[in-house]
Known about the structure:
- This protein is an alpha+beta fold and 476 residues long.
- 36% of the residues lie in helices and 21% in strands.
- Strand 6 and strand 7 form a beta hairpin.
- Residues 461-476 have low confidence and may be disordered.
Amino acid sequence: MISQSALRELARIVGPDHLVTDRTALGEYGTDGTKLAFPPDAAAFPRDAEQISRILRVANREGFPVIPRGAGSGMSGGALPVRGGLVLGLRRLDRILEIDRENLVAKVEPGVITADLQEAAEQVGLFYPPDPASIHISTIGGNVAECAGGLRAVKYGVTKDYVLGLTVVLPTGKILKTGVETMKGVAGYDLTRLIVGSEGTLAVITRITLRLIPRPDAKETMLAFFRDVEEAVETVSSIIGAGVTPTALEFLDGLCLRCVKKEMGLRLPAGAGAMLLIEVDGTRRAVTDEAEKIRHVCLHRGALNFREASDPREAETLWEARRNVSPSLYRLRPHKTSEDVVVPRSLLPALARHLDGLARRFGLPIAAFGHAGDGNLHVNIMYDGDDPVERDKVDAVVRELFMEVIRLGGTISGEHGIGITKAPYLEMEIPEEGIRLMGRIKKAFDPNGILNPGKIFPPAGADPDQQGVQKRGERR
Ligand SMILES: Cc1cc2nc3c(=O)[nH]c(=O)nc-3n(C[C@H](O)[C@H](O)[C@H](O)COP(=O)(O)OP(=O)(O)OC[C@H]3O[C@@H](n4cnc5c(N)ncnc54)[C@H](O)[C@@H]3O)c2cc1C
């Protein structure tokens, strides 16, 4: 609970128009991409780092939680106020401050929508590659806090590969600059890298310096249909093995295809059970050469059908529909648990076999799609939350999936973060000493534990209050 006097102080800091306390209005700030819901006590929308610093000092004195929030598209519950407290909305810090063409650097505030930065860079012939499928809604601040990946990660890497420096407000209220504005820099520990991907638990990001690259001249989109999932994912390694690194190498299984074929305008070849959606970019000549190599590999691996998008408009329709695969899956069942596991690319066929076995054994639809070029699959366990039998199976499916992923040398999260939904499983991947060290780092940044508590750490470990937190959240 936040006391009335603290609420008055918060209203003085951000202005009464930028503090929300009405319970109904607060609803939208208590949920995110997971569709779980936890009501906050209030939501404040500061204008700058100075106001955020003052808010965090009040929170330290009064002992209430502060939860940074971008667009609320997170898939692991990172922005959920699981213990109530103040949601700190960053939407008013939304300026692109500079795009420096000589130094290939952009300086932005965290509330900028990812697609807006990409467009601004492209307008001056530059390129900001990270492109989570949520680019039209997610913020750069949320991308940095989650170290978002995306469709182009196979060739260009993920958000951390582009963050040069940050300005942050520490939980104690101190404002700190980390990293550099240059292409290189190794002065001291890399605090920037530590904060990237820390899911809003170590600091509030208020300014970001990003590396840009020159915009490629040309690109080409291709589709290849396969009889089954194994054939499709085996082809992924063959494409990379042929010396081509596509910009994007996305995979959709048969269930996903059924859910999005209308939006994609697809006519599925008879017997199609999986699809690869592939993009190459570069000079016109490189694009033509690489597209030809990919065509050859796909047909050699038994593709039922291979074709190139007829024009940029068709290509954009295909990519837009790909970005909407995740929400379209609700056609299969009213609820889903969405995991984003990664295995070494060459072991994708083994993961695909395992998923097939899980779906058969537990009798639940499991739809998989995602960034196969990175070995990163979004595994969606579809179920009916009102059916206790189906609901109870989900945890067992997730646990078996994670065991297999770790056995294959992979990780339980490639890009969505741990948040609350994966916290109960973190110990499966990170050894006890690693988790203890992370706990000490958290304490050094946030001695009173006010910034985004209840996230990342396993419920029964450093943070017993978190036990059952996921189950307490209501589904929307
Ligand atoms: C349809 C769909 C597709 C998606 N596709 C992808 C994908 O391809 N790749 C991918 O990586 N993710 C994907 N996501 C997940 C999500 O969009 C990303 O995690 C994104 O980075 C979250 O950004 P956001 O602004 O919505 O952050 P939020 O959800 O608001 O917050 C996410 C986390 O960041 C913290 N945070 C936010 N802003 C700040 C800040 N300024 N300072 C400190 N902490 C902060 C929050 O506390 C929280 O822990 C997808 C989500 C959806 C709904």
